[in-house]
Amino acid sequence: MRTANNEPNEKIPDSDDRQGVCRCPGAGYYSDLMLEAMQISAVFFNDDGTIYRTNTLARKDLRITDDSTGRNLHGLLSVASGENDILPELLNRLDVPETDQVKLPAGAIVRCNLNNVQFFVSGCITRLECGRRLFSFRNTMDEITREQILSMILARTKIFPWFYDMDRNRMLIDAHWFSYLGIPVGDCTITQEEFFARVHPDERTMLAEALRLQLSEQEIQDVFSYRLMRGDGGWEWFSAQSMYLSRTGDGSPYRVVGVCQSIQEYKTTEENLRAARDKAQESDRLKSAFLANMSHEIRTPLNAIVGFSNLLTGGEVDPRDEEAREYTTLINKNCDYLLTLVSDILDLSRIETGAMEFCFTEHSLAQILTDIYGKYTERIPEGIKFNLLLPPDDIRIDTDAMHLRQVVEHLVANAAKFTATGRIDIGYTLTGDGREIRLFVADTGCGIPPHMTEKIFDRFYKIDSFKQGAGLGLSVCKTIIEGMGGRIAVASRPGKGSRFTVKIPIKPQQ
Fold it and tell me: How much is the pTM?
């Protein structure tokens, strides 16, 4: 049988034919196979420091190729704690007859004096029989590196691992959890009573029941949020999740492990966002209330201005005084525009505050459109033919006549604004199933480009920025029609004109 070094298997001699080791009856034989199977690095040496054996793992950790037989231990390596080599001190402590083993202190570093390789270790120096000694160690460099990286990550993310010790009936929590909360660390354990005494009363019952179920045969992987009392008496939000590490033969958990994380920053951000939202909503409500109030205040004197300007326009004006007639017409036109603008703002404020109400009563649809036709006949510019297209039989529908007139009048006014020559048609038809009517306002104006038809009903959107208007009218129309249970759409071709269609039910849904 050969070892990993391809050397014949041999027993370590008991005679003095190897490094002067004396024969010691009962010392036993060390098999190469057993030595190489060890999961720790092993360096055997005599009490005078002479090395007589190393295993493969030790040579790998020290990055040497030979077995260092005959080399002095101090020449091969040193053990550093801080800036000092403590190997001599450790060996001296082993010289005390009552001491059979000396452990390396935490954070000890082994340095190979042949190549300056160094790494963290845990291990011990043990006295064997017949003046022999064993330096056994485990390279913990990767382990400590991972622990430090994990510790930094957990500290930055405020995540704390824990597990429940079923035998001791206690929770074992990462030491950073105690220091983070500002409470004594102790042995990093805490009883259920101590833990739940720190949980906020509002979440205590919920969390206690979840832990009780988790410690039974029912596994819970839900995430729970709760508040914990800090050492200074303040409350901090945490979230926690746990799972079984494994189960015993009867199905009960062998160990429950989990993590908890401080989510106070998220809760604070959430509260700030909620406060900002509430403030914005309140500001929006006040804005809408202001607009509604101001619109009413403006409409009161404006109605008087419009009324008297109409009287002035329709009164006796010297036909030879064209300038006076032009001025009165201009006043009347701009008063109508201002009244429409104020009405749109008032309706917008009602929509924003949810205060727009509808009153449905039975009306003659032909009469509604006839009234609108009569009102706008004199307002349509010269050169444009205004047509009222009604079916032979009148239809009576349940509708809010005031709001329906508002929508149709706005569509007619829009058609007049964007039509220079040709015609404007208003009318309605009945759908095939008799459940809806289609009101339409069609013109032969400039039309709407295809890429603008989808945005035409958006607030403050204008096709032509040089035309009068705030871009609110069509948006208000859409809201009104939808509030009445209907729909509004547009079909248009640039240079050919537009057709707005309003579909409303004959009987509104209750």
Answer: 0.45
